[in-house]
Design brief:
Number of strands: 22
Radius of gyration: 23 Å
Helix content: 25-40%
Structural class: alpha/beta
Oligomer: single chain
Distance between the termini: 56 Å
Largest sheet: 7 strands, mixed
Low-confidence stretches: none
Strand order of the largest sheet: 14-15-16-13-12-18-19
Mean pLDDT: 97
Length: about 475
């Protein structure tokens, strides 16, 4: 993966120097100081990785589901066996609390790999039958080919798993580009997986936006998958369209959290604060846009403010830390900008400032006094900032909840079962939680509507996205 301070790409089963030779600094978000350098891969690096993946596909596509299952199960076991090393890499790159990184990211990642290992053997299709007299038809599900994949910096290891595991389970090969600020754990995952995969099946190359553009533009991949911003998703879709590549886009979110007057205020505030501040709010499903009923609004703002006061940010090994720093200087500037541009009527009940003068730590923040058209309501902050709006009735709650360009996740908080069922139907989001927010399981799909993209991660739907359907007909 790396020497003491210089990383390498991982291509065709081994660590390799960048052909194009460029490097960029990696910065510790806890200190703002450089701790390593990573390749900025150019066209020659992309081409080498694509050639390795294309060559490996010729044999990997013919592996049986059982063989792919065994490889993935061994990767999951090895990931857990090297847990300390993997967590160290993830924490080094992100500054996240060490204990939470292990329990909420590494352990679920191993479980998700195991899910796709099993799912590889249960792909379904229509039964063979005579739909036309004298002819028997059936469906084959086949791998697509080489998949180009791009992952973000908020969950570097887990997002790599969400992309790599279903692609490999379906018989595809992969060229993955992690975020330019967080490549460590993805490179380590490739190194671990190489013990159980043929060379070239999983390749990881570091780089920047230009590297990502080169991946998408390269003629070899037949599918491009990205988790990132809506802007990045649009660019990928436009570039992929030129060659009619399939796209899998998991993009931004602005999750509404609808709290009705009959909700348990204390319990809801506790859970929503946890789901809003987890990972410093750097989660496209984060519970950061609260819509509260007219009678519960004041009490709920007060309860959220109390929750923020008891929420601690700090270094990875500090006790009782709920979240670490924002990932990078640009992201901190983005969060600060949202707070600086608030309208005069907005009220910042707590937080709203950087913590200390070292690294990218931000205070847990609660803001009210906002209108539906305000920037901070419409756009994704991606930071530990929770906004609260007061709605008057259920119809207005639905209108405001759906009144953004995103459609990834949402939640409803009520004791009224009938109301919950109505809201589940009316909310235009790929996931609706009821009296909870943010839990994810491997068996259920994750993906959104509207400008949150298309395609599903996790679940059998996620595996199917990495297959193509072929109709076969025999005359007799």
């Amino acid at each position: 993966m790396a020497s003491d301070s210089v990383l390498r790409n991982f291509v065709n089963g081994k660590s390799v120097e960048s052909i194009d030779g460029g490097y960029r600094d990696l910065v510790d978000p806890c200190t703002g100081e450089v701790f390593a350098q990573a390749p900025v891969s150019g066209p020659a690096d992309v081409d080498a990785a694509m050639r390795a993946a294309a060559a490996a596909f010729e044999s990997w596509r013919d592996s049986t589901p059982g063989e792919r299952q065994r490889a993935l199960l061994r990767i999951a076991d090895a990931l857990e066996a090297r847990a300390d090393e993997v967590v160290d890499a993830e924490v080094r790159n992100t500054g996240k609390p060490r204990g939470l990184t292990r329990s909420e990211e590494l352990e679920p990642s191993a479980d998700q790999i195991r899910f796709f290992a099993g799912a590889a053997r249960v792909l379904e299709g229509r039964s063979a039958a005579e739909y036309l007299a004298g002819h028997t038809s059936y469906v084959r599900r086949e791998p697509i080919g080489v998949c180009a994949q791009v992952t973000p910096w908020n969950y570097p290891l887990m997002m790599a798993v969400w992309k790599v595991a279903p692609a490999l389970a379906a018989g595809n090969t992969v060229v993955l580009k992690p975020s330019d600020t967080t490549p460590l754990s993805s490179l380590l995952l490739a190194e671990i997986a190489a013990e159980f995969l043929p060379p070239g099946v999983l390749n990881v190359i570091c780089g920047d936006r230009d590297t990502g553009r080169a991946l998408v533009a390269h003629p070899t991949p037949r599918m491009v998958s990205i988790t990132g911003s809506t802007r990045a998703g649009r660019q990928v879709a436009e570039a992929a369209a030129a060659d009619l590549k399939r796209t899998h886009l998991e993009l931004g979110g602005k999750a509404p959290v609808v709290v009705f007057d009959d909700a348990d205020v204390a319990a809801a505030a506790t859970a929503i604060a946890e789901a809003g501040y987890f990972n410093a709010g750097q989660d496209c499903t984060a519970a950061t846009r609260v819509l509260a009923g007219p009678r519960v609004y004041d009490d709920f703002v007060a309860a959220l403010t109390d929750q923020a006061a008891g929420t601690k940010t700090g270094l990875p090994d500090e006790e009782d830390v709920a979240y670490g720093p924002l990932n990078n200087a640009d992201q901190m500037a983005r969060v600060r900008g949202f707070l600086e541009r608030l309208p005069d009527r907005a009220v910042v009940h707590t937080g709203g400032r950087q913590v200390g003068d070292r690294g990218y730590f931000w205070q847990p923040t609660v803001v009210s006094g906002l209108d539906q058209h305000d920037e901070i309501i419409q756009q994704e902050v991606f930071g530990p900032v929770i906004t609260v709006q007061r709605f008057t009735d259920e119809d207005e709650a639905v209108r405001w909840a759906n009144g953004v360009e995103y459609g990834l996740a949402s939640s409803v908080w009520t004791r009224d079962h009938g109301r919950a069922m109505r809201m589940v139907r009316r909310l235009d989001f790929g996931c609706v939680w009821v009296n909870t927010h943010i839990p994810i399981v491997a068996e259920m799909p994750h993906g959104g509507f509207k400008h949150s993209g298309h395609g599903k991660d996790l679940s059998l739907y996620g595996l199917e996205d990495y297959t193509r359907v072929k109709h076969v007909m025999h005359a007799f």
